[in-house]
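=== RUN LOG ===
request id: a7f3
mode: sequence -> structure
chains: 1
length: 419
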Amino acid sequence: MRGALPYMAGMNARRPPPPQAPRRAALAAPLLLLARPGQAAPPDAWAALAQGALAPILASVAAADGPVLLKSFTTEGGEDFDRVHAEVAFTYDNALAGLALLAGGERGGASRIAEALRLCAEQDRHWADGRLRNAYPAGRVFPEAPRSARPPGWWDASRGAWLEDGYQAGSAAGPMAFAILLWTALGDPPLRRAAERAADWLEGLRAPAGYRGGTIGHEPSPDPLPWVSTEQNLDLAIAFARLGRADAAAHAAGLVRAMWRPAEGRFAMGLTPEGAVNPGSALDANLWPALAWHGGGFEAALDWVLARHGLPSGAPPEEMEGLDFNDDRDGIWLEGTAQAALLLRRLGRAPLAARFAATLARHRRRDGWIAAASIPWLTTGLGTGLRPGVADFLYPSRGHLAANAWAALAALNASPFGP
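=== RESULT ===
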């Protein structure tokens, strides 16, 4: 899990002068149909989806001066989720948004997000070792405010206390790897130095096989995350390689390849804290290796995902509309659907890519944000840790920064892992 944990509430109770503001993209009219069944999407339809997905990201960047982090979810409701996420800017979501802006030719906006993340690593209220937390408050980050970077939080009137979430205060390997991908893609010397410092910290997570998940909880002694994730090690393999850290990259990549189940044509989720293979499977753990290592022989994982996560349930691939996070298929997870649309395009499966893109367009709200889920609360089969043994990690139908960023990348045919 890289981004939101919608019901983690109370877990703790477990630049230089700013660049020119990016131009605003006009909101494209919703694309209700990108292609007829069996046909690829016309090029202008992909361009319109890219423009529409990037528009609210651009508007959010333009609304602030200087280095800025963007809010991850819209919070227009009155539920616990909205209170807990009122100011949350997840590190992963923002790094991904920066990569989408860069792919769309908006280097200025990407640089402002990247600089905000760099300042957060430099100005943490406690840490001085290059790590990033999983989330920060959305808005401008001020270079003249040392030791000001903190986790987001919310006021709990019933307790009369300010609360911070343990996951958001922690540091997971995957989000940090995505920050490195953004920093190295831009290549500016201060960003490169931030990437090197972050990589130094990440190398400290080395396990006998791959790299552990990071930490969860607050300073000064957060708890370690002792499991090893296939998806996060894929992220790390690419990030370490970008920095020329060949041994570290090979160590992470070795774990990913070891999780390949050739008889099933898919990846396992990773290793348990005890070192056993976790036989479960995550959507991104199966889609991302084929994106990052094109031609690596992992393309069959896409069909495995379609067969178990595709909606409508039981439909042939050519009639599917999108993907669920898990295999109960109670609704569509739009971020994962966008990831699949990009991979489908890259594998030459244009008609199905167009169908998935049409689903993304249908779930673009009037404010331009794409919903995280097609139903009010999408189950994932995962838990937040608040209630041991309970699968209470849910995605809401709120507008989601990561869904827009992945939709833009799919529409631009641009992989966050590079060409």
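=== NOTES ===
The domain at 11-412 is CATH 1.50.10.10 (Glycosyltransferase).
Residues 202 and 219 are 17 Å apart (CA to CA).
=== END ===
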